[in-house]
Amino acid sequence: MNEPIIRFNHVFKAFGNTRVLNGVDLTIHKGEITTIIGKSGEGKSVLLKHIVGLLEPDSGEVLYEGRAIHSLKPKERKAIKSKISYMFQGTALFDSMTVYENIALPLVETTQLKEADIRSRVGRQMEQFDLTESADKYPSQLSGGMKKRVALARAMVTEPEIILFDEPTTGLDPVRKNTVHSMISGYQKKYGFTAVLVSHEIPDVFYISQRIAMLDQGKIIFQGTPAEIRSVRSPEIRNFIQGIENPKDELTGMETRTAVEKRFEQEMARMVSHHIDFSLVLFTFENLAEIHRHIGFLAGQTVLMNFAGFLRQQMGIADTSSRLGLNRIVVLLANTNRERAKQFCERIAQEIHGENLLSIQPYPGFCLSIQAGFAQAASDMSMEELIQQAEMSMNTLLEFKIC
């Protein structure tokens, strides 16, 4: 387990007669993505502002690497602030500044770097985010997705240890929403920064987060992994997640993980009572990160969306499917034994073509690798155990050149 970098110890905060934080205890671990969820108006953004130092607690402590921030000398507090970046809700780009000027702003205002060094660092950042050709454009000339990229580039240009994201996907369509999530996850893995998100995008944020914290009535009522919050028995937490969770995955049009788990239980009951077989197929995109790196995050999400659409056309009316993560899709095949599940995979491999997946031309010689594993359910087996069996049987299903 990674060491804590930020810790809230019994933090209270009120604005006038309205108490927003009511004894918050929260641990943020170094080098991980932690997402804070909860109802609107519960104080999630207030938590972020305590981390960055825009607000101070009325009582309790916010600690950075074990030291109470409010008790530090001004110079020490400034040093901590310099390690934290904030990606504001709605991007907060300056309309009168170009893309280059927006990204350079934190370096101009908070560092003593020479102009040539600023140009060099901003240039590298724009190249990494595929913004070089837009350097002289203004925010009004950019799409919503490009504005998010500029905001993320600006947040990362100071090479921070911690980046705070306040509703980073607000107002985006499903493809670009998932593109931003993939972008955050991809760059976090590449650079190792600690990320704290405030988001309502359930279950999408479960795919990229190592930890989830739920804020309710001013207190953290859950801290744990995405798997742990899915299995929690608290009616309060379960009702919130099921109430806010989209009925369908917006990117793929598939069922949610919750719906597939319910279907698994139904199929298991049918198998036990009527001896009707069913199987699970797991598809994994092995080199989606390579698509992100060479073609862009939007192209990677387009691949997932197109593959899911093709897959739904091949499924039977009683079958169901869901995303399991950023690069995995699971299919439950009703009335299907292991041999028929294998035949289903073989049919997919024969009928799908590269041009069906990528809507733009990648670099020459690129091979998209999709692996498929399949397993037949046995009595008293959990869905996780069936997924593990499918993983153990994985073979390269699709590997072809898209030129």
UniProtKB/TrEMBL annotation:
InterPro entries: AAA+_ATPase, ABC_transporter-like_ATP-bd, ABC_transporter-like_CS, GGDEF_dom, Nucleotide_cyclase, P-loop_NTPase, Rev_trsase/Diguanyl_cyclase. It comes from the Bacteria. Residues 6-242 form the ABC transporter domain. CDD domains: ABC_Org_Solvent_Resistant. SMART domains: AAA (SM00382), GGDEF (SM00267). SUPFAM superfamilies: Nucleotide cyclase (SSF55073), P-loop containing nucleoside triphosphate hydrolases (SSF52540). The keyword Transport applies. The keyword Disulfide bond does not apply. Residues 276-403 form the GGDEF domain. It holds the Pfam family GGDEF. GO terms for molecular function: ATP binding; ATP hydrolysis activity. Keywords: ATP-binding, Nucleotide-binding, Transport. NCBIfam families: GGDEF. This is ATP-binding cassette domain-containing protein. It comes from Desulfatirhabdium butyrativorans.
